[in-house]
Amino acid sequence: MNQFKNFRLPGGLILIVLFLLFFGKSMIYTIGVGEVGVIQRFGQYSRQTLPGLHLKLPIGIEKLTKVNVDIIRKEEFGFTENQYSGRPGVTPRDDVSLMLTGDLNVGLVPWLVQYRIEDPVKYLFEVDQPESLLRDMAEASMRLVVGDRTINEVIIKRDEIAMAAKERLQTELNEAKTGITISTIEMKKTNVPGPVQPSFNEVNKAQQEKETMIYKAREAYNTAIPAARGEAERTIRAAEGYALDRINRAKGDASRFLSLYEEYAKAKDVTTRRIYLEKMGEILPKLGRKYIVDEKQQNLLPLLNMGPGKEAMSK
Predict the structure, then answer these.
(1) Within a 13 Å sphere around the CA of 3, how many CA atoms are in the beta-carbon half?
(2) Tens digits of per-residue pLDDT, 75-108?
(3) How far, in Å, CA of 15 to CA of 9, rounded?
(4) In this predicted model, what pLDDT tens digit does every residue of 220-261 receive, in sequence order?
(5) Which residue, among 101, 177, 115, 82, has the nearest Cα to 145 in the 3D structure?
(6) Rounded to whole angstroms, how far apart are CA atoms 178 and 124?
(7) Angstrom distances, CA of residue 212 to CA of 157, 206, 216, 266
(8) Stated pTM of the model
(9) Own/partner pairs for 7-12, CB < 8 Å, 24+ apart?
(10) Distance between CA atoms of 128 and 43, rounded to whole angstroms?
(11) Are 35 and 115 within 8 A, CB to CB?
């Protein structure tokens, strides 16, 4: 122990050991699961390294930046996750969520953007402050989508609006070469600002009453129109039947007349006499009392006594 107490390392050797320890630590590094190591040599991009143990040149020559490409990051717009209560107008950043819709109404539209880093090189070197750019682009995309829809569509069709905003935002991020991929856009409860909420409820009530009246009118229409169409169809069919009957009767009368004419043409005298006798046979029974006079009779006075006598009349 006394010998070790008297042992002294040279000052230069100590400096060398410290130097090797410092630079040796900066040369060996580990990349965790889900991470990508981005190496810069004198500030310029050099290479990427995957999870595991790696070596690089000492600090000052090569610089290591670790980027997690698996974690899902999020940006909140118009609310914070721990304060959001689902009630309209309770967001800490109403200036972000306050938007003008296509029908010139104002709505509170809070939403959440979830994303991950797809390309670490673009994320680190192509854009300055990519998170700030993401927020600006997300807000612009959402305002553009909301501005094309009515307030009722914004309140009811939140999934459709979120999908449209995601597609537009992803297109803008790709054009800016941010290296960011949008996972989802989640729309929170959308409503109108508190001061106009009563008026908005009155408008919705009036619209519901309008829809109810339209439904009742359509129901009455669907009841009356088929009945009227059925009645019209029945009348048309009756008229067609009557016309067909009249036509058939006329054709029958014409056929009978033609047949009679053909017989008349064959024997005019006989046919004329037969027609005369048939017609007289129909007429005479309807005349009641008849007087038959000889055509050679010159004086009709004797016929005055042919009537029934007083006795006959009394009987």
Answers:
(1) 0
(2) 999 876 654 444 443 444 557 888 889 888 888 8
(3) 10
(4) 999 899 889 999 999 999 999 999 999 999 989 888 888 877
(5) 101
(6) 8
(7) 22, 10, 6, 81
(8) 0.59
(9) none
(10) 15
(11) no
Secondary structure (DSSP) of 180-191: EEEEEEEE---B
Cα–Cα distance for residue pair 41/63, rounded to 1 Å: 6
Please, are residues 130 and 180 in contact by the beta-carbon 8 Å criterion? yes
30 vs 54: CA distance, rounded Å: 6
Residue 90 burial by Cβ neighbours in a 10 Å radius (0-12, 13-18, 19+): middle
| Residues 118, 69: Cα–Cα separation, whole Å | 6
Radius of gyration of the chain from its Cα atoms, rounded to whole angstroms: 55
Question: Torsion angle, CA of 256/257/263/264, rounded to 10 degrees?
Answer: 160
In whole angstroms, how far apart are CA 82 and each of 29, 76, 79, 86? 37, 11, 9, 11
Whether 180 and 173 have beta carbons less than 8 Å apart is answered as: yes
Relative to beta strand 73-77, strand 62-68 is unpaired
- Provide the angle, in degrees to the nearest 10, between the axes of the packed helices 197-266 and 268-283: 120
